[in-house]
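Weekly puzzle thread! Below is a chain. First person to post its structure in token form gets bragging rights.
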Amino acid sequence: MSTEIIDRSLVEIQSKVDKVFLNLHQLTSDIGNQSLSDTVVELREKLGEPFLFVIAGEVKAGKSSFINALLDTGKEICKVAPDPCTDIIQQIVYGDEEKFETINDYLKKIYLPVEILEKISIVDTPGTNTIIDHHQEITERFIPHSDLIVFVFEAKNPYRQSAWEFFDYISTEWRKKVIFILQQKDLMKPDDLATNIEGVRNQAIQKGIEDPQVFAVSAIQELEDLKDISGFDVLREYIVKNITGVNAYKLKMQSNVNTAEQVMTNINEGVSIRREQLNADVEFRSEVRDAMEQQEAKSYERVDKMVLNLIQDYDRITGNVRAEFVEGLNFFSLAGRSLSSLFSSDTKNVKVWLADLTKRLETELQTNFQTKLEDGMNDISDSIKTMVKMVDLKMKSSKTILETNHEIFGEIAEKRQDAIKEIQKNYSLFVSNTENFIDDEIFPSAKSYAPDVAAGGGLAVIGTILALSSQTLAVDITGGIIAGIGFVFAGITLFFRKRKVIKAFDEEIAKGRKNLERVLDDQIKAYTTKIKERLDQNFDPFDIHVKQEEKSLADLESKITNIDVDIRNLKQTLV
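Winning reply:
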């Protein structure tokens, strides 16, 4: 391959540019934005395309020879055309094997296994006397994407109207890439050639070209290895400097890299908003959890306060009973009761006295427990209801920062909104469903109250369930204590067992005290915690979204950082 019109140092730059656009394409694919992805794909495809030269000129101007001489491959690239005099546009590109492809009635593609065609593709237009009939094919398909437009004139007569008419079809914005060639200069006298060169320059200036580039060449001399006089060295030097060289390529790439940088700016702005939304969502969930935990803690405090009050009453009541019991177990009291009962039916024997003592203990405990439990349960019920209401308020106050109409991440915003809506739906169903507050898992005895509370529904069930449970708890707790004490009393038969009986009595009182704390902790605190857990489960879809967002954003931000660094480095290379 000739190295004269392709700078080898371009390979390194192209590799760096391709890496940036490959990573950028992967990033846009990860984001899932089709518009951005299409933009990057289009940019990358253009980067990978060979330099495009469009050759125009008269039939007899020697365009085919000019192309063969310019590319200097040792092969006659244009010789493969079946009829060089036809009015067919021929696009000559690289291919692993030689073949022809008919695109339409006006365009054929020729594939050749010639190395330089990996870097340069040629569009060989028909003679300008026929090109007018289908100039739109050239001006729409090739001119906008061309890197160089070459007007080849016959050196003897560069003023034919058809060539200049085609020039007029080319939009002004593309004229900066136009050069003019006077081919077959070997057939001209130097003075006449100089006259025609100046004539072409003047004609181009009149057509709006400020500094027309006109080159006189001889393809025959170049192909015959008369390179010092053919004029191609000067032409190639210009092409390398302005089209295919490193500096020219840098100019070409700067526009594409600037576009890539703008794509990254848009992505960065979108990711920034997305990160802000994620941070707000994480804060929102933290606030919801904190609110539930605070109310759970308040409920626990109220349970502890209620237990403390009950324990104080319990200690006072059982202490009074114990004092009377101990006093009644001394030798003289027991003997007196036993002797008196023999002579008087009004005197209570030991058995009756113990039964009365047990009954008074049971009645006083139940009365005190019932009142204290009902008051405490009302407070706890209010705390749990407040927890539920606070969650509702928190949901309504969640911030929406990433809108569904966002240019890049609108789909992510929609998924988030769907998650929020699912929370609200699930939450509404949860609060209205009585079963969520009375099943066996969260309150084993709740099912027995179902007929009484089923009509309440929702939050009303909490108060009802706790109020009803206070009655059962009072009976269960005191009943267990009394049963144990009754068993102890039943064993009193002899005076000398006093110490053992008092010890057994104290043990039963201690058991009752411990059982009181345990039952309330197990049932009331556990009930509060289970309600909190079930409330939190309504956020599962949202939590899944947040978790996915955290991973997705972390991956995106890492890739973005790397691409931003690569683009900055690439811009420095292209300066």
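Puzzle host: Confirmed. Bonus trivia for everyone else. The domain at 50-244 is CATH 3.40.50.300 (Rossmann fold).
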